From TrEMBL:
The keyword Hydrolase applies. Residues 177-271 form the Peptidase M20 dimerisation domain. It comes from the Bacteria. This is M20/M25/M40 family metallo-hydrolase. It holds the Pfam family M20_dimer. Transmembrane segments: none annotated. PANTHER family: ACETYLORNITHINE DEACETYLASE, PEPTIDASE M20. Keywords: Hydrolase, Metal-binding.
Amino acid sequence: MDIKTFAKEHFEEYKALICQLTAIPAPSHHEERRAAFICEYLHQLGYGQAFIDDAKNVICEVKGSDLEAPVHIFMAHTDTVFPDETEISVVVEDGCIKAPGVGDDTTNVCAILMTLKYLSEKKIVPKQTMVFALNSCEEGLGNLKGCRALVKQYTGRIGQLVSYDCGYNAGTIWAVGSRRYEIRIRTTGGHSYADFGATNAIAVAADMIHDFYEIDTNTMPGKTTYNVGLFEGGTSVNTIAQDVKILYEYRSDRMMGLELMEREMSAIIDKYTDREDARVDIEMIGDRPSMGQVDKKKMTELQKRAEGIIFRNTGVMPMFGSGSTDCNIPLSMGIPALCFGVYLGGGQHTREEYVRIDSLETGLCAAMEMICEDMTNPL
């Protein structure tokens, strides 16, 4: 049975698995229920070695015939951006499967699970050891915890890493790093009339944000950006605010860009910590590394192979570029890695997210071929 025949014969099973797994809530740091389902699913396929590690990754290692060959990793993240802890409603209509988190990244997780089902049924033994990881904490403040733990476990042994994420019309080959901070500003505050003139934490925060947005990134290497994504605080309309919280991040596709932004931000923070009328506390809450020194030839070979496989199976030539994904970790360490997905859809990171059913079979074939071809053509 070839890949296309398997995908066609198991298509309804694949759709049902997507719906079943999507319904299980999995906010970052709280992927326990989804991880347990996946691990049990793999045990039923005959992968008794599958286990859940301390980072809540589900890891299934398939040993190769050549134990000295570099390990190849295929992964997809189990967490979603949504905080729900009760069952997610999944709707199948208008040629789509609709639910928050259905595409990013549940469908990609299911593609790996179906590939493992195929390998089990065909009793395929790879040349090099293959690690299949359904990992935690890719989204937001998950800070790539799952991928960090995985790469640490296999340090020095990884030949390449492929992450299935989002759709097959685009992919990531260049890591955009980021640093994220929570900034707290506290003042004595007071009554808006009786204590008029007292320092207002909101006013201090507004001045600080203005300074952040005066930073000129045009002369910095690569593409470097910044953003204040959350601002909250104060008590009431007639209260001089005592406490404000800001969430601030900057990103760059170059390590130097991150370092230059660190200097700019630190200079601004120092300006406000010197004030006697306000207390400023800053905490780093996220740190994603940027691109490291990766062998260009190996990266080109990996990208061309992925492009060819996706185009052969779907008729779509993906656009590979920069992004912030689980691949940030291996790419920052010089390990060849790329990211692409297995469907077409839309509404990612919204409650209107959907995947197109007519894209699922060909996308699954692309995911399976990437893995199965890799077994006989080690990088």
